[in-house]
Amino acid sequence: MEQVVFESVRYSAECQDCGAELECWGVQALVDGRLRWDVESTCSACGFAVAVCGGDVPAERRDQMLSEHGPARLQVRSPPTKNVAIMRVLRAELGIDLKNAKAVLRRVLDGDYSGTLPEMEHLARTLREADVAATATPME
């Protein structure tokens, strides 16, 4: 079983019950080959608590994770003969067309494609399943 990869952020929102400040913890995790976004919230004023599991990470929280944890880079060490396999994975996983897959491939090969650590590890694992040597590494 592969290791769970995750990053979390803490933020505030308004309590839907009393309007006070709600403390929230959001976690983007790669679990069993799938990316997931989970949030737990607790209101210190009224005791309202909720956990929401699954779904996509909101853009604002993704930006917050990148700011707090820094981006991770997707790196491939494969011969050019693997470019078609890489583009096939990129198209399937990112839901992009061939033109955009070529652009992303150039960024990947140049070492310039990045995102959250769970996102990049998900792509790296999927590429490794397609016999492409890939890793996700935090950028310094």
Describe this protein with a few key phrases.
Ribosomal Protein L30, Chain: A; three-stranded antiparallel sheet; 140 residues; 34% helix; 2 domains; single chain; alpha+beta; 4 helices; four-stranded antiparallel sheet; elongated
Summarize the structure.
With 140 residues, this protein is α+β, with helices and mostly antiparallel strands. The chain has helices spanning 59-69, 83-94, 98-109, 117-129; strands at 5-14, 21-31, 34-43, 49-52, 72-76, 114-115, 134-138.
Instruction: Count the domains.
Output: 2
The largest sheet, given as strand count, sense and whether it forms a barrel, is: 4 strands, antiparallel
Fraction in helix:
25-40%
Q: What is the CATH fold-level name of the largest domain?
A: Ribosomal Protein L30, Chain: A
Strand percent estimate: 25-35%
Number of helices: 4
Write down the CATH class of the largest domain.
Answer: Alpha Beta
Q: What structural class should be given to the helix and strand makeup?
A: alpha+beta
Biggest sheet strand order reads 1-2-3-4
Number of strands: 7
N- and C-termini, Cα separation: 28 Å
Order of SSEs: EEEEHEHHEHE
Q: Could you name the ranges where pLDDT drops below 50 across 5 or more consecutive residues?
A: none
CATH-scheme architecture of the largest domain: 2-Layer Sandwich
CATH superfamily of the largest domain: Ribosomal protein L7/L12, C-terminal domain/Adaptor protein ClpS
Which descriptor suits the 3D outline?
A: elongated
The overall pLDDT, averaged over residues, is 94
- Radius of gyration using CA atoms only: 18 Å
